[in-house]
Specification:
Largest sheet: 2 strands, antiparallel
Order of helices and strands: HHEEEHHHEHEEHH
Structural class: mainly alpha
Helix content: 40-55%
Number of helices: 8
Number of strands: 6
Length: 247
């Protein structure tokens, strides 16, 4: 079994408002700190190694608001913060571009024949794709985590064997920390994506409401999240060692 995704145990004292931490997170024991390999990513002044930092955007385009740098342990997101992250992910300019590209591909391949072709068909794909993305974001990032007290942000590992890091990243769709820091089944992801697919049956053609069609879209959504987290995990390495730039 892969090591469960969990928050790293060290953070720069200057990076968190004490008022946010009080009453929201448990203080790690000295023993857990000593056993944490991510300590190697912390500089002598308590700052995260710049080469291991997760940027707010990857390549200046892809939103990366849900990623936490290796070695950092912020407090659990308050409902307002989770709502804000879901909103950023949904209405960031790149979201409109992403939906536009995927809608163009879907229209070109007639993924849903009943939606038609040409400009009217493209628009039919576009608004449905945008609603799909937005529903999923608010359910997986805000609604379910707030109710279930789960922190579904991606906590980067930042070091270790490539295979182990990849498995750790992909497994984050199944395992996530609770507000208290314990690893739990990621019900927010699994139930949230399921709820989003159930909602989508109300605005897709009847031919796309079959159990098989819904299951295929559901598997794609969860798999996409696993791949996204894997990319997040390795992006600092790619930026530093291949592109020779700051992440």
């Amino acid at each position: 079994m892969p090591e469960a995704p969990q928050p790293a145990q060290v953070v720069a004292s200057s990076s968190i408002d004490p008022s946010l931490v009080d009453g929201q997170s448990e203080t790690p024991s000295p023993t857990s700190l000593d056993k944490n390999p991510d300590k190697q990513n912390i500089g002598e002044h308590g700052t995260v190694d710049p080469s291991r930092q997760q940027p707010k955007r990857i390549l200046g385009i892809m939103p990366n608001y849900r990623a936490v740098s290796a070695g950092a342990i912020p407090p659990p997101p308050a409902p307002k913060q989770a709502f804000g992250i879901a909103t950023q992910n949904s209405f960031d300019y790149s979201s409109f571009i992403f939906v536009g590209v995927t809608s163009l591909m879907a229209e070109g391949t007639a993924a849903h024949p009943q939606l038609g072709k040409g400009v009217p068909g493209y628009w039919s794909y576009y608004w449905r794709g945008f609603v799909d993305k937005t529903n999923g974001n608010y359910l997986v990032i805000f609604a379910f985590p707030t109710v279930l007290h789960q922190d579904t942000r991606y906590y980067a590992k930042g070091e270790g064997p490539v295979f182990k890091r990849g498995l750790y990243a992909a497994s984050s769709v199944l395992i996530t920390p609770s507000y208290s820091g314990r690893n739990t089944f990621n019900a927010s992801e699994i139930l949230g994506r399921g709820a989003a697919q159930a909602i989508s049956t109300t605005y897709y053609p009847s031919s796309d409401r079959t159990a098989g069609a819904v299951a295929e879209k559901y598997a794609y959504a969860v798999g996409r999240d696993a791949l996204t987290n894997t990319f997040r995990e390795f992006w600092p390495d790619i930026a530093t060692h291949i592109l020779h730039r700051h992440p």
